[in-house]
Write a structure and sequence with these properties.
This protein has one domain (8-180). Helix 1 runs antiparallel to helix 2. By secondary structure, the protein is an alpha+beta fold. The protein contains 2 helices and 8 strands.
Length: 187
Amino acid sequence: MRYNVNQVVLFMYVNFIASEPRLGGLFYPWKDELVGVNFKKLTCKEHHRVPGDWDDEIKYDGYVFSEIKDDKEELYNNQYPRASYGQTDDSANWMIIDHTTDDYHYYRDAAKHLEIILRGIRDLQEREPEWSKALQEHFDEMVKLIGEQGFDVKVEPVVFKKLDGTTESYPDILCCKLTQKEEVTNG
């Protein structure tokens, strides 16, 4: 499962002005203008088995997240009540839509957002070293902002578990894990 009930997950939306019209929502720090970064710290409230957009077979995972704001509960869906997959894309697995404003924004799981940046850093290192450097600076800034939201970021190689039970790791394929910092109370 992607998420567990009662798990706190940090979602983020990077608001920017693109330097030119283009498809997709990737921020290019070497040429786009960063407006700001918004976060939503949500609690996974429900897990459901759901059908997909292309069939009615109940075989996908859908989630409902909750946020208490001004004594009011707001609910956000992730692949619920139907799961949406492209032919080669599972990006909706890691998003919620902010429906609380007039202009809907897709918030991405912060760990997955960081992984996308890391992939860009790796892929551009030899071809476009200046772009790779700009992405590294952006990554470092996002990690700092995520820290200010109460989460630690750990970057490590992806470990693949094979069908025979053995594991294999690839040092060039990195994943990010966020853990919520312990709240310290004075008492």
